[in-house]
Amino acid sequence: MEEKIALAACSGMSPNGLVARVAVHDLAIDDREILSICMGSTSADSEGFKPMIQKYPILAVNGCEGNCVAKILKQKGITVVGELNVGDILAETDYKANDAARLDDEGEICVKIVKDTIEDKIDELNG
Fold it and tell me: Which of 31, 40, 45, 114 is 20 to 30 Å apart from 25, CA to CA?
């Protein structure tokens, strides 16, 4: 990766939101050039948080068609460099997440699919 990028995952209580959070968390652990943004702190305007999230380009990883992550960031005056939607990603496969709080075997496959899609999007953004 050419530069650091921040990923902002869905924090909603849906199966796809869980997949988004786990995929983003895994990528941030595995790659020092990927940061994970806390949507709770972003929404709450936590002191000192806005300058940090303005430091790096942000890719929004929405859980569903509500696209809340991108909407919240835009409401906070943060420009996103791209958006992904877990629901759209998984709709192109034979897999679906089944629980909002626990990943089963199929949920883990969904995480892998979403991680691969996020990595492809990052590569695309880096040109």
Answer: 45
Q: Encoding tokens for residue 87?
A: 């629901």
- Give the distance from CA 113 to its chain's centroid: 13
Q: What does the pLDDT read at residue 68?
A: 95
Residues 5-17 pLDDT 10s: 999 999 999 999 9
Q: In what order do the strands lie in the sheet with 5-9?
A: 34-37, 5-9, 58-62, 80-85
Query: With contact defined as beta carbons under 8 Å apart, do 63 and 20 qualify?
Result: yes
Q: Tokens for 18?
A: 């869980």
Identify the band that residue 2 occupies on the pLDDT scale cut at 50, 70 and 90: low
- The tokens describing 54, both together, are 């303005």
Distance CA 113, CA 60 (A): 16
Q: What is the pTM of this model?
A: 0.93
